[in-house]
Design a protein that fits this description.
Helices cover 28% and strands 26% of the residues. It is built from 2 helices and 5 strands, in the order H-H-E-E-E-E-E. The chain has helices at 2-19, 30-46; strands at residues 54-55, 68-72, 75-83, 96-102, 109-117.
Length: 124
């Protein structure tokens, strides 16, 4: 009986996983996904951690595609706003603008061309 229950559980989990779009189905390669994760995490560290800062929602989309400005031989360049926790949900203005360039393999930050505090008049 336990064997049947285990099999049913495994079959259900496999069906659930199979139903989710993969990175390749979304047109995203693994390097881009790694790069987006690294860029997001780097911005969080640069701006004081999750207690003080949240990147824009576009950085939580598969591959960070809405925030991807350029992808070429130099790597992946992401540009996104950020702010205090829940800034977007509370419809508050962003407080930072960040650009992060990640190497083509998605495993190393090449540079941070921009990480500036925004004033209300300086919003892009």
């Amino acid at each position: 009986m336990a064997l049947r229950s285990s099999f049913a559980l495994i079959a259900a989990a496999t069906a659930l996983i199979s139903a989710q779009p993969s990175f390749s189905q979304a047109g995203i390669d693994n390097n881009q996904q790694r790069a987006a994760n690294l860029a997001r995490d780097t911005a969080i560290k640069l701006n004081g951690g999750l207690i003080k800062y949240r990147p824009a929602a576009c950085m939580f989309v598969i591959g960070g595609t809405p925030c991807l400005v350029k992808s070429d031989a130099k790597g992946f360049l992401f540009r996104f706003e950020g702010g205090s926790p829940a800034w977007q949900q509370l419809k508050q203005p962003p407080t930072t603008l960040t650009e992060i360039l990640v190497a083509p393999g998605g495993r190393e930050v090449v540079g941070t061309p921009l990480n500036k505090i925004l004033t209300p008049a300086a919003k892009p």
